[in-house]
From TrEMBL:
It comes from the Bacteria. This is Class I SAM-dependent RNA methyltransferase. It comes from Lacinutrix iliipiscaria. Residues 46-157 form the THUMP domain. GO terms for biological process: methylation. PROSITE patterns: THUMP. Transmembrane segments: none annotated. Coiled coil: none annotated. It holds the Pfam family RlmL_1st.
Amino acid sequence: MENNFKMLAKTLFGFEDLLANELVQLGAQEVKKGVRNVTFVGDKGFMYKANLALRTAIKILKPIKTFRIVSEEDLYKQVYKMDWDQYLKPSGSLAIDATVHSKQFTHSKYIALKTKDAIVDKFRDTTGERPNVDLRFPDLKVNVHIDRQMCTISLDTSGESLHRRGYKTATNIAPINEVLAAGLIMLSGWDGQTDFMDPMCGSGTMLAEAAMIACNIPPNLMRKEFGFERWQDWDVDLFEKIEESLLNKTRDFHHKLLGFDKSPSAVAKAKENLKNAHLDEFATIKHEDFFKTQKGGQEKLHMVFNPPYGERLENLDVEDFYSKIGDTLKQGYPGTDAWLITSNLEALKYVGLRPSRKIKVFNAKLEARLVKYEMYEGSKKGKYMKND
């Protein structure tokens, strides 16, 4: 179909397989994995669908031109030559975002400035008018990517990063990024067929993402705006049709989501965020110290959490804290698959349990591990020996 075009979805390190799989499930064509990105082909409706439904994408770019450059002047000339009036009115506003991996071009801010100059000058020369720069709510967000001497100009279809789902109005000290939370839950293999728990739930991000995964709710339904809504070819009827078809694929969830936090303000924030996301009916959030709790009932429990790392809480006694995590899991949570993420790799030694899985991920710029502890009912020794 001639209406199909190539797109690139950006993601976090280690989530490329998850994102590629999500795209295949959604119906994308020509899905190819890169490093921190996945390229695919689809039409305008699929672009809307990908922005609404992908859990592990941070941004979706639409490449419109690729060329070779050897100087900033080359960049200016190539961008100037492009037909910008099909994307933007002279009275409109734009923002430029640049990423540079090159020995020759080292300043991304200068590259962004040069690109902006070329677009603005082109409008001024052909229409006598020039678009304004608006970094917060531009009509068009342009992405410039330089890899050595190859430059790709793309339109940013998403606008603000897709981790900003729109349900979080209240956050605590270091809230986990929504895309990271969704990816960790997906990596943990949770399928919505058991109870789910976050014993240190902070502002409730893990619980919200887990609920949306369980019910197959598109994660970005609550967003105020996507970048493409300001484009000249914005089709609101098509968008609403896509939205409706995604909502028709939601499913029931017959288990419980449980969140604990020992901070009363975190509990209040988590409740508020789950309510904003219309997910509060699925979740019970309690003011509890995890180390003084036990699992209720015999059912299998799936636990994913993001304990403090030491970077967040300066007074944290890491050895004591992590050994308490191990003791609480061992004594109080039989029949539980417990996953935790930490960037304090030393701290994992104090848990005193042997992880059955370790997955390398990044939390912002910090290298971290997502680790799994399988807490068995009854005798663990025989089970662990089988895993050796």
